[in-house]
Design a protein that fits this description.
Elements lengths: L4 E7 L3 H11 L9 E5 L9 E7 L10 E3 L1 E6 L2 E6 L3 E7 H13 L4 E5 L2 E7 L4 E6 L3 E9 L15 E13 L8 E6 L9 E7 L4 E10 L5 H14 L6 E14 L11 E3 L15 H16 L11 H16 L4 H11 L2 H8 L5 H8 L5 H10 L5
Parallel strand pairs: 1-2, 1-11, 2-8, 5-13, 11-17
Antiparallel strand pairs: 3-7, 4-7, 5-6, 9-10, 10-11, 12-15, 12-16, 13-14, 14-15
């Protein structure tokens, strides 16, 4: 095979792209396949923090930043302390994940990583290949996995819901021992941004270090100083901390949408990550989805199926679209809905539901927690979109 010919190309070395690359490397099926990874960044800094839950031990435990067994939830007239039991909530800094992935990729002679920006894809289905043009080269690839969001997503006039999960966090260090490093605050709705869905999230890493993050679910970003004001207010009024210093800051924006990214897949091009609908639409969680979906893509390829075959669960995407509609049109109700869910259910059952792994009966138990009124107008409208 020519040096510029590859069996697979992965555009983007984020969570989705690197999960997929590592899943391929771990399978003998791909040992004689040439794999190309392209990203315009070096991927050598902590440019983001990923948090997720999973049962007990996991494959990333050796590079975790921290994990917790206990959680707190503060909502509308609800304060709940939770033992995660068989689960752990875990946080991973991206710098360690990137380095871990690079070490695995460096050991695979059939994988090439280049720092280049992808400019153009020309899909030639008749020849069963894609012409990939980057800032430096041109490649011929049998199948491309593309993490870039399709332009159609930004057009918006298509009937799908789009909102943003946007946040800013401070990594702080205190003079006194004030944190319990085995318990985190999953959601605290007591401090609001106007009359919109917003909450604070606290991840203690030690008795004197924590990340305090203010998060909003809506369709409009706020100013930097507005995040800062809310974070400082929470630290002073709710954590009762007067003396602290800011070690680091982090900002992010995650699209929350029922836009059918999966319909942008082609015979020789598969969308991955956010661009493939791998982010949980109603929560913004993505890291574990990327891990699960990467393995499923690999199994599909080995079975001679389309890489995206049966990745997304229609029933759960329908649930997601209903909640997104309420987030968009009745945003002020979300705190009470989350409060009902946490008040009436065990956290382990909530995790199963949010992981799209429940049964009809377990789903119904969660759904019955909610006041049905906000959902009635939405159900019929959304029924056909994920059919």
């Amino acid at each position: 095979m020519n040096k510029n010919h590859y069996d697979y190309a992965i555009i983007g070395a984020g969570a989705a792209g690197l999960h997929l690359a590592m899943a391929m490397i771990q399978e003998d099926f791909f040992n004689h396949k040439k794999i190309l990874i392209l990203d315009k960044a070096n991927k050598d800094t902590n440019d983001r923090t990923w948090s997720f839950w999973e049962k007990e031990h996991g494959k990333w435990d050796d590079i975790l930043h921290h994990s917790w067994q206990y959680a707190s939830f503060y909502g509308d007239d609800v304060m709940k302390e939770m033992d995660l039991k068989k689960y752990r909530y875990k946080t991973l800094r991206s710098g360690k994940f990137y380095q871990h992935a690079k070490n695995i990729i460096a050991s695979a002679s059939h994988v090439t990583w280049m720092k280049e920006e992808v400019l153009e894809l020309n899909n030639n289905e008749d020849q069963n290949e894609v012409i990939l043009k980057s800032s430096e080269n041109q490649f011929v690839v049998q199948h491309v996995f593309d993490s870039r969001i399709d332009d159609d997503f930004f057009k918006e006039n298509d009937g799908y819901t789009r909102i943003l999960q946007h946040f800013k966090g401070w990594f702080i260090q205190t003079e006194e021992k004030v944190f319990d490093p085995d318990k985190f605050v999953m959601m605290d709705f007591r401090l609001r941004w106007k009359n919109q869905t917003s909450f604070t999230y606290v991840l203690p890493f030690s008795e004197t270090e924590a990340m305090v993050e203010f998060t909003l679910f809506n369709d409009q970003l706020i100013e930097d100083e507005d995040y800062d004001e809310k974070i400082k207010q929470y630290i002073c009024e709710f954590l009762k901390i007067e003396n602290f210093k800011i070690i680091e800051k982090e900002k992010g924006v995650i699209p929350m949408t029922d836009f059918p990214f999966h319909k942008k897949n082609k015979k020789n091009i598969t969308k991955i990550g956010t661009a493939g609908g791998w982010v949980k639409p109603s929560s913004g969680y993505a890291f574990k989805n990327c891990e699960r979906y990467a393995y499923k893509v690999v199994e599909n390829i080995k079975a001679n199926q389309s890489p995206s075959h049966s990745l997304l669960h229609p029933r759960y995407r329908w649930y997601d679209s209903i909640l997104l509609d309420i987030l968009k049109n009745k945003n002020e109700l979300i705190a009470s809905l989350f409060s009902m869910m946490f008040k009436k259910n065990e956290i382990q059952d909530i995790f199963v539901f949010l992981d799209d792994e429940g049964t009809w009966s377990s789903d119904l138990k969660i759904i019955k927690s909610f006041d049905p009124f906000p959902f009635l107008k939405t159900v019929g409208k959304r029924f056909l979109q994920w059919k």
